[in-house]
Amino acid sequence: MRRPVRTSVVAALAAAALLVPAQAAIAHPGHGPGKPKPGASPQLEKLDRGLVALPGEDGIHLTWRLFKSEATGASATGLTGTDFVVKRDGKRIATVTDSTTYVDPDGTDRSKYTVSPLQGKREGKASDKVTVQGSPFLDIPLTKPADGVTPAGEAYTYAANDVSVGDVDGDGAYEYVVKWDPSNSKDVSQVGYTGPVYIDTYELDGTLLNRIDLGVNIRAGAHYTQFLVYDFDGNGKAEIMMKTAPGTKSTEFKKGKAKKAEYVTMPKADRKAGYSHSDDYRMSADDYAAHLADVFQGWSERKEVVSGQWPATIEEALGTEPTHDYPLSRADAEELVDYFIDVYAPSRSGRNVLRNFEGFIVDGPEYLTVFEGKTGKELETVRYEPGRGDDGLLWGDYAMSRIEPGNRVDRFLSGVAYLDGTHPSAVFARGYYTRSTVATYDWNGKHLTKRWLVDSGHVPMTNPFNDGPHGRDGTDPEYGTLTTQGFHSLSAADVDGDGKQEIVYGSATLDDDGSLLYSSFDTMPEGSATPGENVRLGHGDAMHVGDFDPNRPGKEIFTVHEGGAYAPYGTAMRDAATGEVLFGAYSGKDTGRGMVGDVRPDVPGVEVWSSMPAGTDASGLLSADGDVLQSTNPGTNMSIRWAGDLTTQIVNGAQTVTPTIDDWARGTMLTASGTLTNNGTKGNPSLVADVFGDWREELLVRTADSSALRIYVSTEPTEHKLYTLMHDPQYRAEIARQQTTYNQPAYTDFYLASDMSFAKVPLR
Question: What is the mean pLDDT of residues 396-403?
Fold first, then answer.
């Protein structure tokens, strides 16, 4: 186990001491540093009781929500303050005090149930009456989009993918927002056309409320569409917010029939410039060659060339002697394009087959749209900030041996954060390998207001066709160290204890006002590529933020890193407030997966583990303070709080393997027959979240044919009483974030495990 000898953290300096470009980070008026107003509570949903009745081995299993406002104290096993009356067919059958579950041994499949809150002897309003489900799960019927054919003649079909939830109609029950992915969905590094992406909103009974067709100018893939479902303006009804483009349209459904589709509103300047909703910016291979000729023709006028930062000619940039006059004629530019595509690019890597480069979108307007959750009606459309700027040339997409236009420039993330401690803000990020940007917005019911925009600036290169831009600072004096620190996800958590959430952007963290709280660096160890050098912890694929160690104050961040021999750690546990590494291990290889959870209740704190290469001393299961507990460890795709004893279980099963919920000690607890996970080897469920019943999480997966979204609810009894996790602001924000790119679990603001103290659970 490697514990750091020295950890350095690049902290934000006072804005007054910096020469920061205008608008680099703007604090929203009236929302400066400090604690929220006394008595202020985060804006959260007003939910119904969420009562569900399911058949179980010992009878009918009932589970329902405790609201945060109903808890007033704590006992050794749970929260106190409100008890519940359970009625079957109108007759009282039980008073439940120690949980929000009950098993009725005398119930039948024809029984009907309600629960009512009980404070003292006063019985409150009863829940809606529910009937017993016919199976141990609930199916939401889905309406699959029609198959299609790409411009290249390739047929594609659709499968249900990521899911998010929100109360879009204000009735206290969640609706389900489903992303449909075409079978030709692509990673951002893969060439080829894709079908369009659809975003549907469903009631629990399968009623389709609306469908948003993102159109041909939004490519399909995990890195492209990040959709937020949240009640941003506090009117009790959730909005949907995402990146759009010309061609994006929304259709409301009434009684199963589609109303007229409405396109998003294009800015007047775009309409005047000739853009229209019939535009198709997808590139064919010939389009790409013509685009590259345009880039080459404009070479001598580029400011980087004029200043002497880049080579004066394309030939010099490609390592040959100049043979053409500049500015280039069209014929000369096309000749150099042929050389670049057929000779230079393959010489850098055999995987650079740019004659096949097609299906990418590197031009055209980009928008951010707010939709009404219930109807899909467009509420407002603004420009997406920042725009791409180019096809990735400035972002480093041509600089390394793998030439990948449209890659680093089109890496997107999204999330929700309570930046003022009370109101939710939308978070949209672009880029993390080189230039890294994060924009936050508030929605007041009528207009989007940009709270702040952080931008590292591009990484300066001496030659955009042959350089190493990763791990180097961007041009911005305050945010330059954000580059290469972002992950394929982000998190919102109050890491400094001021009552406001920060944005954990991988190996760096932004404070609630947009200032840089820290960017984590450390010393490269012996055996690495650059021993003794102080470098970024760098990019990684998995990140977890929460209170994982009850024996130390504050929160922790557990991350895995893919920098291999150029990263100081393969895995690291950091202090969330300072970015300091508490413990970690160098791997020398891409450490691709990592997970945390209470899988060993005999050990204090939650455990952490990763897919470290075999043989390194951090392989296996580690305690919250870094001790190696055993050489084997659970899976790393997704965790779930399923058991009644407050421990953590793991969702396993990827590609065509049937998903299971597995306990590290007890084995398989559920086999989700007839369903599949998403996103290839990552094996992500559509969603893991507390959408029904007590504090435990439900498993949402698509049926194998995507005809339904299946929801599994735990029927294991519990002796612990806790309010719905959706009333914890960190957890609720993280559920909205779960859909982004490489789906990660959600964690609460408080320590949640088998050895937790309920007295430390926040009640306001």
Answer: 98
